[in-house]
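Regression test attached.
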Amino acid sequence: MTAYINSLDTGHTPFLEKLEQEAKAAHVPIIRREMQSFLKVFLAVQKPKRILEVGTAVGFSAILMAEYGVPEARITTIENYEKRFQVAEENFHRSGYEDRITFLKGDAAEVMKTLEGPYDLIFMDAAKGQYIHFLPEVLRLLRDGGVLISDNVLQDGDVIESRFAVERRNRTIHKRMREYLYTLKHHPNLLTSIIPLGDGITVSVKQEMPQKKVRQEQEV
Ligand SMILES: C[S@@+](CC[C@H](N)C(=O)[O-])C[C@H]1O[C@@H](n2cnc3c(N)ncnc32)[C@H](O)[C@@H]1O
């Protein structure tokens, strides 16, 4: 199904196509085609102006968001792997979007504490086992009505397996991802949909006044 869907994809700008090829050749993980397509549509629908990305790699998705977001969109992106810093910076320069992308180097857990919101969109695409730890800062930084998109949440299906069916070295990530998904679905200020797209994504909207409460008040 995925191959068929991706066969219909009309692609992006030549620069992004080239960047995707370069990243793949260098074994740098970047968002899959399905996620690329989803993000483009999402950007057109929500028109976020302040975007925060956690997990830059070499800048592919940040540049995609600059390309397909509204012209006034500003993207802040965080990366902690030193070996990727220079390539990411070069790519931002080559893309022509250097002035719209702020590249922050360091551990997102620390960097996020120094940021001021509100952000319209937060795109979570870093170490999967950390998502749950990033959540308090994400919620602080996200505006009411803002959206959190998290990538790679279904771990190629591992997440639905019993912990004993998962390789021992992956059990901590498995546990934390389950905790993350449970929290996103049960948090009083988040309304979340888990979508089996690519490696699994979640789309969560922040609501100061939770749905149930709104309904109760309307009934009174
Ligand atoms: C899947 S890649 C990001 C791909 C990128 N969003 C794209 O599609 O072009 C994940 C990146 O997150 C980075 N990362 C992992 N944990 C991080 C953390 N705690 N703080 C900042 N970056 C982190 C990794 O080094 C890696 O480059």
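Expected vs. actual: identical. The mean pLDDT is 93.
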